[in-house]
Amino acid sequence: MQVGRTVLLVLVAVIALFMATNAALWLLVPERAAKVLEMPLLTGAGLSSQMDIGALFLGAATFTVMALITRERPWFIAGAVLILGAAAYRTNAYLFHGAAFLSHMVTVEVVIGAILITASRVLVREAGLNR
Q1: How far is CA 56 from CA 50, 79, 86, 125, in A?
Q2: What are the backbone angles phi and psi of residue 89, rounded to the nearest 5°?
Q3: How far apart are CA 95 and CA 49, in angstroms?
Q4: N or C: which end of the chain has fewer CB atoms below 10 A?
Q5: What angle do CA 84, 88, 94 make, to 5 degrees?
Q6: pLDDT at residue 49, rounded to an integer
């Protein structure tokens, strides 16, 4: 069982690194960040709003790092809500607004959310906290 917890810890750390990298890309190289997410880079006011995606990733990365440090359940859940929310909005865009369905991205978001929710139960217990 300890091996499973260690693997889960590593997965959560990799997720935090992945999200922090996306946040940094939006801040430093927005052209690359947009390409990674399969979207055109907007200009003017559109670019300003598009940069909010970096804030989403920064928030999710911060919550996930806080979860790793404190092992408190709300931090895991906060990160999961942001990522699962992205999957829900992406799916909504497909179902109701004619967007292409990017199943590979939705799948990654759902898997990351599931890992964070699982970690919120398993890793918190490991630390002896019952929140």
Answers
A1: 11, 10, 9, 28
A2: -70, -35
A3: 23
A4: N
A5: 145
A6: 95
